[in-house]
Amino acid sequence: MQHSGTTAPPQDPDPEAGIPYPHRIQFPEPHRHGIILGHDRDYTALTNWVWAKAPRRAANPVSQVTEALVSNAHKHTRSGDPGGTVRVVLDIDPFLITIAVTDGGPRPDSVIPYPRLGDPRLAPLPGLHLVDQLAVYWEWGWALPGASRGPLTIRAKVENS
Q1: Each residue of 40-73: b (16+ CB within 10 Å) or e?
Q2: How confident is the model over 7-31, as pLDDT tens digits?
Q3: Cα–Cα nearest to 106, from 137, 144, 139
Q4: 77: closest CA among 156, 155, 153?
Q5: Spatial distance between the Cα atoms of 29 and 98, rounded to a whole number of angstroms
């Protein structure tokens, strides 16, 4: 995630500090909110956090997209392994809400190093098909500029209406 402005970029919590997940990420901008989740696939805390941060009119699609992206991160990357994490950032403006989900990078035996829609009949959860349906736009890129593997960030934009 790129940071602009004169203030220092936010610091993610130290996972070695022994604080249980989720961790909140503090940003200097009032429209940006972040959370770091562990490898646990109970999405109650995530759903509650999204509903507390997103405007009421957009909370349902934002929650669905966020949960689909975090679920995919847990299913397909090191984020779902013991000690794995997922970073979620909501950036809310008057017209769009950007959801950025950064995974823990590929597993050593990973065959597919990038997101793709695939066959919806083969997926037990809607995953990216749901994201594709609810978002006005989505994209992905390596979390570290210039990397060809490693942590991946998927950004989806949902209407704030």
Answers
A1: beebeebeebbeebbeeebbebbbbbbbbbbbbb
A2: 444 455 554 556 678 999 999 999 9
A3: 144
A4: 153
A5: 14
How many whole angstroms separate alpha carbon 155 and alpha carbon 142?
11
Residues whose CB falls within 8 Å of the CB of residue 101, separated by 6 or more in sequence, listed in order: 66, 69, 70, 73, 86, 87, 88, 153, 154
Residue type present at position 125: L
Which of 76, 59, 54, 73 is CA-nearest to residue 134? Answer: 59
86 close to 36: Cβ distance less than 8 angstroms: yes
pLDDT tens digit sequence for 49-68:
999 999 999 999 999 999 99
d(CA 20, CA 7): 28
**3-state SS, residue 73:** helix
DSSP-derived secondary structure letter, 30: T
- Amino acid, res. 52: A
Q: What is the dihedral of CA 141, 144, 145, 146, to 10 degrees?
A: -100
Close Cβ partners of 80 (under 8 Å, ≥ 6 residues apart): 39, 41, 73, 74
